[in-house]
Amino acid sequence: MKKSLLLIFTILLPLFNFSQDLSVTQKVTDDSDELNTAKIVIDVQGGQAPYQYFWSEKSVDTKTSVINGATEGKEYSVKVVDANGKEKELTFEVPTNSVPESMSAAFAPVVGFMDTYFFFDPFHAIGLYDNRVKDENGVVLKNPNGTDRTIKVPFMVIWLILGALFFTLRFRFINFRGIKHSLDLVRGKYDDPEAIGEVTHFQALATAVSGTVGLGNIAGVAVAVATGGPGATFWLILAGLLGMSSKFVECTLGVKYRTLEEDGTISGGPMEYLKKGFAERGFKGVGKGLSFVYAVIIMLAAFAAGSMFQANQATAQLSSVLGVGGIAKTFIGIGIAVIVGIVIIGGLKGIAKVTEKVVPSMAALYILMCVIVIGANITEVGSAFSLIIDGAFNPQAIYGGFLGVLVLGFQRAAFSNEAGLGSASIAHSAAKTKHPVSEGFVALLEPFIDTVVVCTLTALVLIFTGTYQGEEATGSALTAVAFGKVIPGASIFLTIAIFLFAFSTILTWSYYGVQAAQSIFGETKLVTNIFKIVFLLTVVLGASIGLGAVIDFADMMFLTLAIPNLIGLYMMSGSVAKDLKAYMAKVKSGEIAKTK
């Protein structure tokens, strides 16, 4: 009898929940001053095992109670659910221990605000599509933390691509029919030594290209292809081709509305054409407002994206190869700042003399490396291009479906070639020419070089070698793995390329920043010198510390340039169309003739 009662009690015991109340606590440790080195451990007492952990971080699995590499200053939440359905939720913030951690934490709310209001998905917001990612059977895919996997079509990407498409149609595919004439201009066949300006067509192109061809061509493309698959390459190329038309319009306007200063230097770019162009149309106040907003944004972008980010990534790559860290990074930053300082003392002419030599050299080095890798895997050419086409129009659900792949390709192109942002028009405004449209032709080559050539080659290297999948490395490290499969010591050559890319970008953005500062505070030597000193200090700062959310802020600030700029381009596109028609008539009649 006793045995029977004991057996019944044993069977019924689990039905009565005598377990302790669920108790959940967190322990956060961080033994380093570097970013993203904190460790979170969740301790669960009571309840009924096994437990599930539903984290706020999409990438953390529901079986995981520990996060390594947590971000300092960031708020985390976790909901613990036991086997009986009892749940307990914790929300906490990882404390900061150093200046870099505090700085990153300070920028995080700003990044969140910009993401909400400038990078929202308007199509999903008004219910035009279901943003959940589904497999071929219609089943919604899940993130590791158990939430639905979704895609996002950011407003800024739509804004840029629609602008590029509009200008391509408005100017009857100038991005294709204008290439031959643009090459003649770059080769100096129409150079006029008596024309107003500081630099030649080629120097202006080299300077602007040095500002666009950078780390995004190496690290950014690797992220796009690894995340969106080979199909992202197709949309990246298409976005680059469309962006050529945006460049044509903004750089034509840059020369048309430029100002010749008393000392012979040129002031141009969106700060000038927004102000003067709107004034011509009776909207002086609007133009001044847009010009001021643009100047503030691009000056901040010069510090964050053009200086700190470039110095940070170049130093990280160099210190990794050399096996150094700590104070050595500061000395590397000082070295970069000294070299940059020597060059920018000479203004745009000094920058142009360097970029016209550095840009062809770094491009040739990188393209040669890509060609070697592709050549070694030439037997994969058929399958590689098949993956690109199939991946573009019939992508796997794991890559986010058709819309997810398309957005990744478009977004990477927008980040890389700056078409529609107006920044390149600042450099092109100083070109020696009597005809604004001629510089528009020169500028349309930039997205072709940056995106259609360099970005595409990076993508092909990853696809031909199969490195885009199954590797733990990300960004430039993933690209290095791909090169390393064919070229011995590839990391050294890639480090040289990355350093040159970053160095030339810093040079160009120093000039953009100076022009913005002068537009805001006045065109005086004091303003110029103060900006250059602060800019060089940010180079050292960027090289010395981790940036965290500062990088996200730089990216977002960078793309918001498109808001005031594209408003101006739409408004003034009619006058550019008239100028183009008049210019081409003069070329055909021989009034504008080749000089060589």
Concise overview:
The chain has 596 residues and is mainly alpha-helical. It has helices at 2-12, 99-117, 122-125, 155-170, 174-177, 179-186, 201-212, 219-228, 231-256, 270-280, 284-322, 327-344, 347-376, 381-393, 401-417, 424-428, 436-443, 445-464, 475-484, 490-521, 525-544, 549-559, 562-589; strands at 23-29, 38-45, 52-55, 66-70, 75-81, 87-93, 259-260, 266-267.
Account of the protein in words:
The structure is a single chain. The protein is mainly alpha-helical and 596 residues long. The chain is 62% helix and 7% strand. The chain has 2 domains: 119-152, no CATH class; 155-589, Amino acid/polyamine transporter I, CATH 1.20.1740. The protein has 23 helices and 8 strands. Strands 1-2-4 form a 3-stranded antiparallel β-sheet, with no helix packed on it. It starts with a helix and ends in a 7-residue tail after the last helix.
Element layout with pairings:
Layout: H1 2-12, E1 23-29, E2 38-45, E3 52-55, E4 66-70, E5 75-81, E6 87-93, H2 99-117, H3 122-125, H4 155-170, H5 174-177, H6 179-186, H7 201-212, H8 219-228, H9 231-256, E7 259-260, E8 266-267, H10 270-280, H11 284-322, H12 327-344, H13 347-376, H14 381-393, H15 401-417, H16 424-428, H17 436-443, H18 445-464, H19 475-484, H20 490-521, H21 525-544, H22 549-559, H23 562-589
Antiparallel strand pairs: 1-2, 2-4, 3-5, 5-6, 7-8
